[in-house]
Amino acid sequence: MIFNPEYECMDGQARKKLQLAALKNLVETVYSKVPFYRKKFEEAKITPRDIHSIEDIQKLPFTTKDDLRDNYPYGLRACPQDRIVEVHMSSGTTGKPVVNEYTIKDVDIWRQAMARTLAGAGCTKDDIVQNCYGYGLFTGGAGAHYGALTIGAEVLPMSSGNTERQLMVLRDFGSTLLTSTPSYALYLAEEAAEAGIDLRGLPISKGCFGAEPWSENMRGQIESRYNMKAYDIYGLTEIIGPGVAFECEAQHGLHVNEDMFYPEIIDPATGKTLPIGEKGELVFTTITREGTPLLRYRTRDITCFINEPCSCGRTTIRMHRLFGRTDDMLIIRGVNVFPSQIEHALIEIEGTEPQYLIIVNRGESHLDEVELQVEVKKELFSDETRGLENLRSRIEQIMKSKLQISLKVKLVEPKTIERSIGKAKRVIDNRVI
Ligand code: DLL
User: Among 292, 325, 358, which residue terminates a domain?
Assistant: First the structure.
């Protein structure tokens, strides 16, 4: 089902006109309302009057994750505070989270974007959506919730976790559409098998999965265990949350909601825009946003555009499912984690050395497990073991509060972790996805 054929199937030239008008409006706003952007424009010696065509977007400065960190928490707000109605957050590189503030119009855009997304997977008002994305500062829960309401479907606001109750609801409430991270969907399937629940016999027939990398192999597993069609959905906190791009029934690339979020693909080394079809870093300008709009935000996600017409009838540009990232961000149980956050936290913990190694595994259960090896001062090893045990559990607690994930800490003696002559190797990611 196409939720909004007027916009999703729009003629390309008409869409370009719309994008240009929205871009001009946005550029005027950030130039006059956001000192950070005013300064960037001055440095680049441009003004809003330099934007005449959509291609002129290439004259505009990029925005990076570091810019968001430097302007934490409200420095990029482009409207008065009393117009903000909702806030979401995700991890930044060194402890300062990335903040996104929404006006009511932004929430409306999000609702529409997610309604298109769920409709892409065939969701109608007859569906019962079991929403297992986390509710809270993470965008997944709220985004899927808004989208389902906008379609008029019934939402079961489960949030993540509490597997036993998830399975009870899945079996007893007749859920027809599952929204969760793909790894959680597989974990649930595993637990269902243990509990003797035959998922293939339940009404659940489609799922919208994203927020972390997954593969065709995982798609196949999910589809066969649930007897469902599994769709890839993409988004990020900085831009809106989920709802930036989604698969339709053709499952051949993700349609970008480009009338809302203008996409570009650039060479991450030079910043130059790449021709359609070439792989590079995905960049978005939030042409319709009001709260914290961003110009040419560098996502660090790697993909390419697919320019052939899609059999579904939508005319929006599609992006290939992600190939990876340009940085070292890990996604663990759906939570973004930067090794630099761990490093920062360790510096403040007495007794530890700044040498650590993160080992990530995906266990039998399909959930991510993390071991953090930390070198500790020599003296501690000659102490009684209670001291070591206290330190170990203190690090675990600190990491839990700073990173929002549980990891297992293993304390090791100085010089145990292999040194490298080049870039230090901080992560061993053993996950096969
Ligand atoms: O993960 C938003 C979201 C929620 C998307 C629910 C889909 C479903 P963040 O926590 O800010 O936002 O993380 C954004 O996650 O830059 C990608 O690297 C990664 N990511 C998101 N969707 C996918 C996907 C949400 N379908 C970061 N495939 C992004 C691979 C994804 N990676």
Answer: 325
Q: Quick one: which atom of ligand 1 is closest to the CA of 144?
A: 6
Ligand 1 atom at minimum distance from 233 CA: 26
Residue 282: strand, helix, or coil: strand
Instruction: Examine the domain organization and report whether 97 and 184 are in the same domain.
Output: yes
Q: What's the pLDDT tens digit per position in 47-85?
A: 999 999 999 999 999 999 999 999 999 999 999 999 999
**Whole-number pLDDT of residue 68:** 95
Closest ligand 1 atom, residue 244 Cα: 5
Pair (335, 425) in one structural domain: yes
Question: How many A from CA of 235 to the centre of ligand 1?
Answer: 5
| Spans of the chain, pLDDT less than 50 | none
Domain housing 347: 330-432
Say which CATH number the domain at 362 has: 3.30.300.30
Per the structure, how many domains does the chain have? 2
339 C-beta closer than 6 A to ligand 1: no
135: left (phi over 0), alpha (psi -120 to 50) or beta: beta
Please tell me the number of Cα atoms within 13 Å of 104 on its side-chain side.
Answer: 2
**Burial (Cβ within 10 Å: 0-12, 13-18, ≥19) of residue 325:** middle
Q: Name residue 90's amino acid.
A: S
Pocket perturbation via mutation, ligand 1, pick of 336, 341, 403, 433 by most ligand atoms within 8 A of CB:
336
The radius of gyration of the chain from alpha carbons, rounded to an integer in Å, stands at 23
Q: Domain containing 229 — which CATH number?
A: 3.40.50.12780
Judge if 208 and 262 occupy the same domain. yes
Alpha-carbon distance of 205 to 188, in angstroms, equals: 15
* Cβ neighbourhood burial of 309 (10 Å; 0-12, 13-18, 19+): exposed
Is ligand 1 within 6 A of the CB of residue 176? Answer: no
Whether residues 255 and 356 share a domain: the answer is: no
**Angstrom distance (rounded) from CA 331 to CA 329:** 7
Tell me what pLDDT residue 423 has: 67
Q: Is the CB of 243 under 6 A from ligand 1?
A: no
Closest to 405 (Cα-Cα) out of 351, 374, 431, 369? 369
Last residue of a domain, one of 296, 325, 354: 325
Residues 144 and 238 reside in one and the same domain: yes
In ligand 1, the atom with minimum distance to the C-alpha of 254 is 26
